[in-house]
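Hi all, a correction to my earlier message: I attached the wrong file for NADPH:quinone reductase. Here's the right sequence:
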Amino acid sequence: MTATLSAWRIPHYGAPDILTPVTLPMPEPGQTEVLIRIRASAVTRADGLMRRGEPLFARPFLGLRRPRAGLSGTGLSGEVIAVGDKVSRFAPGDMVFGEAGMHFGANATHICLDETGVLMPKPENLSHEDAAVLCDGVLTSWHYLHNLGQVKSGDRVLILGGAGSLGSAAVQIAAAMGAEVTATSSARNEALVAALGASRVIDYTREAAMQPGAAYDVIFDTVGVASFSVAKPALAEAGRYLCPVLKLGRLPAILLSSVMGRKRALFAATGLEKPERLRAMLSEILDLIAQDRLAPVMDRIYPLADLVEAHAYVEGGHKRGNVVVV
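and the right structure:
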C-alpha cells in the first residue's frame, strides 16, 4: 500500500471554510531534504491573509486566483523520520522546528524540507506546540525590535497590540532588552500583558496610547492599527515607528522618512531574510528562552482535523498569543 499524508488545500481565495482536507502521496526526501512527521503547526494571522489572498498587490507573486503552493501552513515542529543521501545536519529521530516558507504545507501530518532552509534542532525543554510558533510572532518581533528598532536598555517602547502573537513576544523581548515597556490591550488582557513585562498597560478602548509628546524611542505597531503620521508626534527625536503590516498607502511614508527628519518609519519582510540569518536569529531567541526571559504564549490547541475552526478563531481577532494544530 502506498504511504500517504494528510494536508489542507486552499482551492481558491476565501473564508476559512474554503480550506479542504486532502490525502497526498508521501514524499521521499531529495538528496538534501529531510522528511518530518509534524507534531504541531502554527495557525497565524499571516496564514489567514494568504488564504484570503491579501493584500491584493501580493497576488501576482502568490497566485492570481489561488496560492500557487496550494497548501496551508508555515510554522511547524516535529520529528525527522527520513533524510536524503547528502543531509549532514539532521538524522532520523531528531526533533526539529522551523518553517516551510513559501512552499507552505505545514498544516499536515508530514512535510519534506531542505536542510539548508529555516530548520533547527528543537531543544528538549521546548514543547512541539511552543516550538511551532517561534518562526511567526517571536521571530518577527525579535527582528523588528533587535535589528530594525535597535532597542537598548532604558529605551521607552510602546507595543500596539500587546496580547497577540507578535505583541506577547514583543513585550517580553523589549523587557529582556531592558526597555521601559508600555503596551496596549483590551481590559481582559491587561493582567496577561503586565505579567509579560509591560510596566504600563493601556486599554485601547478607553485611552489613546500615542499622545503627542510621549517621546517613545520605538513604537512597534504589531497589528497595523496606526500609521507613521499618527505615531510621529508620540515619537522621541530620532524615534522609530515599526510596523510589519505592509499597506501600499504606507510606502511613501517609509520612503520619505528615510530622507526627511530624524524620525523613521521602518519595514522589513522577515520571512524573506536568508535562511542562515533567520537561523542565527532563532539561536538568539533560544538563548532567551533558555534563560527563562521569553516563553511563547499559547491560546488554543486544535486537532489538525479542526483547521477550519482554528482559522475562524484566529480571524476573529481576539486570540491571546498563539494558536496551533496537532
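Sorry for the mix-up. The chain has a mean pLDDT of 93.
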